[in-house]
Amino acid sequence: MQLSFIQDENAIEAIDGITYDFPYTMHERDLTGFTVPWHWHEELEFDYAYKGSILIETGNKTYTIHQGEAYFINTNVMNTKRKAPGSGVTIEHAHLFHPLLLAGHYKSIFETKYMNPVLKNLSLEVLIIREDSKSGKEFLKILYTLTRLSKTPDSEFEIRSLLSRAWKYLMEEIELQKKKLQPLYIQDRSKDMLSYIHKHYQEKIAIADIASYVGVSEKECIRSFKNMFHQTPMDYLIRYRIEQAKRLLAETEESVTSIAFMTGFQSSAYFTKTFRKLQEMTPKEFRRVRREG
User: Fold this and answer.
1) Closest of 290, 254, 260, 288 to residue 273, by C-alpha
2) What is the DSSP string of 140-164?
3) 260 by DSSP, 3-state: which?
4) What's the chain's Rg over C-alpha atoms?
5) Best exposed site among 161, 188, 222, 223 by fewest CB in 10 Å?
6) Strands 36-39 and 126-129: what pairing?
7) CA dist., res. 275 & res. 264, Å (int)
């Protein structure tokens, strides 16, 4: 299962599989035991819930994607994902691609006429697409085909063609749902705070450090962060560290003690105590469950 947890120095997600010569990739993400941390990226997402239901949270709204439904995430939309409450095994198929794959080049007719009206639509961050419309049904068919083609060699031309067709149906869906779309509040300061936490989570961080980085008081730092993310910066830091630890537990042979220090915890005991509180199991139990499953 592929998880997009790698981020650059600005907390912009560096997507595994995206290359300069062909900026497209398909990820099968298992969200059953993981949360995708807050992130954003230039690439666009055409995704669907293959199994279970997915909860997507942005700074403005929470979206629930049920099994069999698709969704579009616009460029640079800050979001976090996890399995929805009550959902069992939760897996999504995510098709990620850079806008240039369809636009071709700067100021092409494809960019100015077809892509920019979507990319620059400040009312559009996430669009849920279902089979209850002709365009929705065709959009989902294309995603199923893309999943199959992603494992087929020498399929680049066909993949780009299918993404172009999917874009056409996306525009039709936006037109159908335009009455539901409302202007959204975008807060760049929140991205700056996340960038600092994601870059320095392995170090000792205090509220004063985050506040100083974005140029506000500690009180305003906490207020602003809670307003956007519904938790304090320090609560988010702890949860982010735990998510990084879960990835290391699942994907490496590092000891629990090593992982504790690698993810910013000051002791193995405190790490285990915090992990058990948030995950309702110890780090060793989590590793065992992931590998047996």
Assistant:
1) 260
2) HHHHHHHHHHTTSTT-HHHHHHHHH
3) helix
4) 20
5) 188
6) unpaired
7) 13
Measured between alpha carbons, how far is residue 76 from residues 38, 188, 220, 250, 268 in Å? 11, 11, 25, 28, 36
Task: Pick left, alpha or beta for residue 86 (phi over 0 → left; psi -120 to 50 → alpha; otherwise beta).
Answer: left
**Please, what is the angle between helix 268-279 and helix 233-251, to 10°?**
100
Where helices occur in 18-133 by DSSP H, the ranges are 100-103, 109, 116-119
Tokens, residue 263: 């993810």
Residue whose C-alpha is closest to residue 238's, from 290, 195, 201, 287? 201
Q: How far apart are CA 284 and CA 249, in angstroms?
A: 8
Name 79's bridge partners.
39, 58
What is the rounded distance in angstroms from the CA atom of residue 39 to the CA atom of residue 94? 15
Q: Output the furthest CA–CA distance in the chain (Å, rounded).
A: 59
Q: How many CA atoms lie within 13 A of 224 on its CB side?
A: 20
Tell me which long-range contacts 240-245 makes (C-beta under 8 A, separation of at least 24): 240/37, 240/197, 240/198, 240/201, 241/201, 241/265, 242/274, 242/275, 242/278, 242/279, 243/5, 243/34, 243/35, 243/37, 244/5, 244/201, 245/271, 245/275, 245/283
Q: Which residues pair with 228 in a beta bridge?
A: none
> What pTM was computed for the model?
0.77
Q: Consecutive 10-residue runs of the chain (293 residues): their mean pLDDT?
A: 46 76 95 91 95 93 96 93 95 96 93 93 91 96 96 95 98 91 69 92 95 90 89 96 95 95 96 96 94 79
